[in-house]
Amino acid sequence: MNEQSYLTITNFIKDYPNSYVGFWEIAISISYNGYNEELENAYNNLSVKIKQSEVAKVFENNITNAKTLKIGSYFPKIKLKNKGLKEVEFITKKNSSPNYTLIDFWFSYCGPCIAQFPKLKKLHAEYNSNQLKIISISTDKTKNIDNWYKVMEKHTIPWLNLLDENGVKTTGLGVNSFPTNYLLNKEGIILKKNISLVELEELLKEVE
């Protein structure tokens, strides 16, 4: 969504504060595009009736979580597991050599997630020397860890893969749809949520 879309939603809610259509437009946008202050302000203009509903109470928690991963903020430190299932603290290093880091959230039974692997592997092969680092974070359940290994082996994933077992940390960050990605700059600051791989490739070509 662009600023004009946000303005349209904001104006709509001012005219129709009791509209669940407006509420769901905000909820879907924040879920997919990430936190946006204008949309939070629009939400605050909804009627008390809507904001006291059970679904709105859940959404308010999602807004709080989404702020952690808002555009312009540093990607947070989180504890994950490596392939040996040992706990490691995941920190995006500042001033690392690649210009960009793509954090990709997925799980091993997610068809759309796996469908991205060929394109991701192509980008990794072409730009991993100094342009792009890819880090995948799986949210597989404990019972599916064996499948996580199988999928990584089958697709010969060459970049770092970490595990958020049962998706506990991921859910706490407000990531609840897959695949979801975050593009970071070399400082570890979030530039974009859910960048398409076509858009990512064009960005990488621009800075060659």
Textual characterization of the structure:
The chain is of the alpha/beta class. It folds into two domains: 3-68, no CATH class; 78-206, Glutaredoxin (3-Layer(aba) Sandwich), CATH 3.40.30. The chain is built from ten helices and seven strands. It has helices spanning 3-15, 20-33, 37-44, 48-51, 54-68, 111-115, 117-127, 145-154, 168-172, 197-206; strands spanning 78-81, 87-90, 100-106, 132-138, 160-163, 180-185, 190-193. The strands form two sheets. A five-stranded mixed sheet has the order 5-4-3-6-7, with helices on one face. The protein has a two-stranded antiparallel ribbon with strand order 1-2. The model has no long low-confidence stretch (mean pLDDT 92).
Mean pLDDT: 92
Order of helices and strands: HHHHHEEEHHEHEHEEH
Q: Specify the CATH homologous superfamily of the largest domain.
A: Glutaredoxin
Q: If you consult CATH, what is the topology of the largest domain?
A: Glutaredoxin
Total helical elements:
10
Taking the alpha carbons of the first and last residues, their distance comes to 28 Å
CATH class of the largest domain: Alpha Beta
- The class by helix and strand makeup works out as alpha/beta
Rough outline: globular
Number of domains: 2
Q: Identify the strand order in the major beta sheet.
A: 5-4-3-6-7
**Integer-rounded radius of gyration:** 18 Å
Number of strands: 7
Uncertain regions spanning at least 5 consecutive residues:
none
How can the largest sheet be summarized?
5 strands, mixed
Q: Assign the CATH architecture of the largest domain.
A: 3-Layer(aba) Sandwich
The level of helicity is 40-55%
